[in-house]
Amino acid sequence: MGQMDSRTVLVTGGTSGIGRAVVTRFIEEGAHVFVTGRRQAEIDALVAELGTGVTGMRGDVSDLEDLDRVYAAIAERGQGLDVVVANAGGGAFSALADLEPEDFDHTFGINVRGTVFTVRKALPLLNANASIVVTGSTSASRAIASFGVYSASKAAIRQFSRVWAIELADKGIRVNTVTPGPTETPGLAGLAADPAQARALLDGMADGVPLGRLGQPSEIADAVLFLSSPHASFITGSELFVDGGESQA
Q1: What pTM was estimated for this model as a whole?
Q2: Choosing from 150, 160, 164, 241, which is the catalytic residue?
Q3: pLDDT per residue as tens digits for the range 14-70
């Protein structure tokens, strides 16, 4: 038997990178996973690969109507929701002098508004002892030049998760943040302008990790699974760093 047999899980931003690894891990453990993403072709490919254990839905978490469609589909299945993994997010390098309002609005729209209302709209469907896991970032507690908007957005959702852990405790709902360090994903490589710069960026990030390498999406997925499982039944409001020691260096 898997750790998540008969559980229903939602993973936002689950078609690539860390999100995709989380979806795969939960399916391996017996869950039925609803997964969202903004590109239909990637959703279709994921469903074709993983089979009947996944329901894919195109949607942008910053669009409340899209979220309503997702939760309507979960409600129609009739088994509630046991785990929410609020993973959808993104950002780009932009120095203060170059920052445009639309860049700010886009990043905060996905990372903060999207996360807040992903969790808010899940509440009526959450089963007893449900778990919410928010994907954070080590940049929330470090100063990285030209990464101010992204890091501030991740700091905001870390604080939200602390507050939610208190607000939802009397319902038996646990809320935690998993904080990856630099992880080998398409999104991280996509911060660079071309493949050569991407390799240099990834190698430079790996040099700053005490374990001497980038994390793998599957390693982050294992941490998300732990926080969602009965093994973490007395853990809420916490931040679990899965960063190879980067935040301690």
Answers
A1: 0.93
A2: 150
A3: 999 999 999 999 999 999 999 999 999 999 999 999 998 999 999 999 999 999 999
Name the pLDDT band for 157 (thresholds 50, 70, 90): very high
| Catalytic (active site) residue 150 | yes
Residue ranges per structural domain of the chain: 8-248
Say if residue 219 is exposed, middle or buried (CB neighbours under 10 Å; 0-12, 13-18, 19+): middle
pLDDT in tens, 171-215: 999 999 999 998 988 777 666 667 777 787 788 888 889 999 999
Domain 8-248, CATH homologous superfamily name and number: NAD(P)-binding Rossmann-like Domain (3.40.50.720)
Share of the chain above pLDDT 70, in %: 98
